[in-house]
Write the structure tokens for this entry.
Amino acid sequence: MKRNQTMFQRILVAFVVAPLAALVACAQTSNITIARPDADSAGIQSQVVSLLQNIPRTIRDRVFSAGCQIVIVPTVPEYTGYGYIDKPRGYLDGGGYDNADGLFIPAKNQLLIAERVSYRNSAPYKANRIPYVLLHEFGHAFDQYLGKSLSTPQWVATTLPRFLDTHTREVQKLSNTDKATLAYFCQAGGSGASETFAELFCMHCQSQSQWSSRQAALVAKFQGTDALVRQVMSNPDQVTTWAGD
Ligand SMILES: [Zn+2]
């Protein structure tokens, strides 16, 4: 009898857990759209669904509940209509949007994942950095979510005094060599702080063995900034403490 009860409980658990898991997957899929389905789209969509599991659940749920949409696009310029003259922030190598394999569009709360990328006039090739791009751009979406969650909403949380000051101080302490290596994260006008947040967020959604040497240098040189990123990743409500100095 006891054994039967246990079996019964197990079956019950299976019946409850399986639909719940399906519901969770379904809720996430509803936040993912495919702009123009082709032979690669479905595979990329399931890769995205599985990668989203690397993001702490509270963060994922809150960012999606706030309306963030992931859009799988053939190429970034095809979807956005951007000309090749525009340059994404921080692109120092002369690449334009034809070279972007992902993008977060704050005004639309959309995170684009490109199926294909091309460099200047070269033929488009299949995007091969989807895990990195998705998690980094999700960091930007989370930054915006945090900013807007405040009682006095901000575009993004990384412009709040505590985060910006901590980041600026750490930039000032860098040697010229480190500044050259980490130039992308040292940009002026809040861009560097925003990129540092997104990159550290991405890193903490991956295992340390996946970090590049530049990423390892970033966390080593921006320990105070990193502590703040980890703080809001474990409890997004802590962002309220960033508003004061
Ligand atoms: Zn970025």
